[in-house]
Amino acid sequence: MRIDILTLFPEMFAGPFSESILKRAAEKGLLEIHFHQIRDYTHDKHHVVDDTPYGGGAGMVMKPEPVVEAIESVKRLSDAESRTILLSPSGKLFSQGIAAELALKSRLILIAGHYEGFDERVRSYIDDEISIGDYVLSGGELPAMVIVDAVARLIPGVLGCGESHVEESHSQGLLEYPHYTRPPEFRGTPVPAILLSGNHAEIAKWRRKESLKRTSERRPDMLAGVALSKADRKTLAELNSEPEATRETDSQTG
After folding, report:
1. Could you tell me which residues are annotated as the binding site for S-adenosyl-L-methionine?
2. N or C, which end of the chain has less CB nearby within 10 Å?
3. For residues 235 and 217, what is the distance between their CA atoms, to the nearest angstrom?
C-alpha cells in the first residue's frame, strides 16, 4: 500500500514511522509512505497557506489553492487508484471497521490541516472526511498517525502472526479478553486456572465470556453493533445476574 500525507509539519512523523511495526512494514515493502509539504504548493515568496476568514471570527483558515494543488499534484505521482481523506473534526468517527475498509485500498492520500480548518471549497476535491474522536487537537498530524498505524496492522504480512489482529479489541466488535503470562502467580494474584489447563475448547469459552464481560462493563454501547449468538446472550444474562464481587473473583480464578 502507498500512503501520501499532505502536511505542514512532515518532521512530526519521523519518530512514530521509523520504529516498530510501521518500520518493519516499510522494510518488507508492504507499506510505502510519502510526505508532502503543503507550503511547497504556494506561489508567494512567504509561502502563506492561511488567511483570515470571510465574515470575521477568530483564527485563520487554510487557503484552497495550495491544498487543492497539492492533492492534484500528488495524485499524479502514481497510477494506483487513490482514496483522498481529509482529517477533520467534522468527519465520520474512525473505527476498526473503517480501518479494515481502508486496508483494502492500494493507495490513500491523507490531508492534515491546522488553524481553524480548511476553506470549504477544498471538500470538492476529497473522497471522505475522518475524525478520530470528539476532542480538539492542534492539527491533523496525530490523526494521520493513528489512521496509518491502524490500517497498516491489517495489511497481510505486516504482523508477525496472521491471527494477531483478529482477536484484538474492536476487531470483532468486542473488547479483548484479559491476557496473562509468566509468572503463574504475582504478588498473591494467580493466573486463572483455566489458562493453565491445556483445554483449548474451555479456554476459548472463557475468553469469549471475558470479552463479553469486559465489553458489558466498560463499553456497553458496543454490544448493540455485535452479532451475538444464543450462547453469548445467555452468558450476558448470567453475568448481569451475578453480584459484582462474584464477577471480579471469577475473572481472577477462572
Report:
1. 113, 132-137
2. C
3. 13
Residue 189 pairs in a beta bridge with 186
Residue 206 lies in a domain: yes
CATH code of the domain in which 26 resides = 3.40.1280.10
Binding residues: 113, 132-137
Compute the CA torsion angle 11, 12, 18, 23 (nearest 10 deg). -110
CA–CA separation, 41 and 68 (whole Å): 9
Dihedral, 224, 226, 229, 231 alpha carbons, nearest 10: -70
Question: Which grid cell sits at 183?
Answer: 509468572
Q: Which of 76, 40, 62 is nearest to 122 (CA)?
A: 62
- Residue with grid cell 491471527, as numbered in its chain: 163
Together in a domain, 8 and 103: yes
- 32-37 vs 2-7, strand pairing mode: parallel
pLDDT in tens, the chain (254 residues): 999 999 999 999 999 999 999 999 999 999 999 999 999 999 999 999 999 999 999 899 999 999 999 999 999 999 999 999 999 999 999 999 999 999 999 999 999 998 889 999 999 999 999 999 999 999 999 999 999 999 999 999 999 755 454 555 555 789 999 999 999 999 999 999 999 999 999 999 999 999 999 999 999 999 998 999 999 999 999 999 987 655 555 555 55
For the chain, the residue count is 254
6 & 116 share domain:
yes
Quick one: residue 29, left, alpha or beta (phi over 0 = left, psi -120 to 50 = alpha)?
A: left
- pTM beyond 0.90: the answer is no
The C-alpha cell that represents 75 in the structure block: 495524485
